[in-house]
Amino acid sequence: MINQLIRAHHRLSILFALAVVVAAAVLAGCGSSSNGSGSSTAASTPAASTTPAVAAKASCGSSTASAGASEAASTAQGDIPDNQQFLSFHNRAGGYSISYPEGWARSGNGKDVTFQQQGNTITIKVAPGSQPTPASVTAGLKQAAASDPCLSPGTPQVVTVGPNQVVKVTYTTQGQKSAVTGQRPKITVDRYVYFKGGKVATVDLATPVGVDNVDAYRMISESFRWS
Fold first, then answer.
1. What is the spatial order of strands in the sheet that 86-91 belongs to?
2. From CA 104, how far away is CA 73, in angstroms rounded?
3. 191, 171 contact by CB (below 8 A)
4. Quick one: how far is CA 82 from the chain centroid?
5. pLDDT tens digit string along 157-208?
6. CB 180 within 8 A of CB 74
């Protein structure tokens, strides 16, 4: 009887030991499978981006004040010489006359005309309108700045130019890309806004920063006459 109990106890010990080994193997297999599956899922599923999309910001380009000065220096002939000859341009459609430097290329017709030479530009635009004021000129520049992020306006003032009382403002922006430097030079523009009988003439006198055309541009602005 005692021998039978010993043998039964021995068999139970062996069965218990086998059960422990099997359970350990099962648990190890489950843990390995779970970890592998988790790693595979993490590797195959990209993390969602938490960076919000940023709208592209309008840019002025590569021009700087120094680049404008460099451009001006490289085209010193952009200065209107003291002995420059001037001609008188009569625009019947626009109803005005104005002086311009001889030899400058003219483009446009009707009420919108441009004279240009080596980065210097004279632009005259005529349109129906009411008496201009500093506030109305500021509003016009603000509207232009919405499509030209480089435009930086000054403060408009009412001044007397020749026989005309006008609103004048100076602003800066970028010119056309230079064939010499590949950059868009910074330019300064003197805007004169004339008025007579329901017509507004806007005259922009533009030149690269660093080029001195003050005297010539003053004479041109004073030459404007309604016809």
1. 86-91, 96-101, 225-226
2. 20
3. yes
4. 36
5. 999 999 999 999 999 998 777 667 777 789 999 999 999 999 999 999 999 9
6. yes
Q: Of residues 119 and 62, which shows the higher confidence score? A: 119
* Closest by CA position to 221, among listed 208, 204, 200, 209: 204
Predicted structure pTM score: 0.68
The one-letter amino acid code at 87 reads L
Backbone region of residue 95 per phi and psi (left: phi > 0; alpha: psi in -120 to 50; beta: other values): left
Q: What is the largest CA-CA distance in the chain?
A: 141
Contact (Cβ atoms closer than 8 angstroms) between residue 176 and residue 186: no
